[in-house]
Design brief:
7 helices, about 150 residues, elongated, mainly alpha
Length: about 150
């Protein structure tokens, strides 16, 4: 997981034009349903969704895992442009992080779902740990840069 994170983050910082052309945050956000919530509120719901997957793993309950995963896969955009919470000078990099981490969350969530379908709860737990590490990594990078 750490290798994937390093590669994605390095790519997003070193090659902003690649993301701007193919996967920019503006397109990502505009492709999503708009939620009646702020970015912070959206992240709080994402945490609850992750918690539901963790609980599903502990209870060996595939349905709980799938319900939590569904929100992560289909999450809406906040009621504002998420990068607006950052200082102007950090917005380009934050946009790149949004695109990168959106993909990373889907990859780890898919791993959790697939492992739970096979009732491989140890693998599901490992994937859930990777998901949480991704969340913590993004939070650590950006928490002190919010306006």
């Amino acid at each position: 997981m750490l290798k994937i994170l390093i590669i994605l983050l390095s790519t997003s910082l070193l090659a902003p034009n690649v993301f701007a052309e193919k996967d920019d945050a503006e397109k990502l956000v505009s492709s999503m349903k708009k939620a009646d919530m702020t970015y912070r509120q959206l992240m709080e719901v994402m945490v609850r969704s992750s918690s539901m997957m963790h609980e599903g793993i502990l209870r060996e309950n595939k349905q709980m895992v799938e319900v939590g995963a569904n929100f992560i896969f289909t999450h809406p955009a906040p009621d504002h442009k998420p990068w607006s919470i950052m200082k102007k000078e950090d917005q380009v990099q934050f946009k790149q992080s949004l695109v990168s981490f959106d993909k990373i969350l889907d990859v780890h969530t898919e791993s959790i779902v697939e492992a739970s379908k096979k009732e491989n709860w140890i693998e599901a737990s490992k994937a859930a740990n990777e998901l949480m590490n991704s969340c913590i990594s993004c939070h650590a990078m950006w928490k002190n840069k919010v306006k």
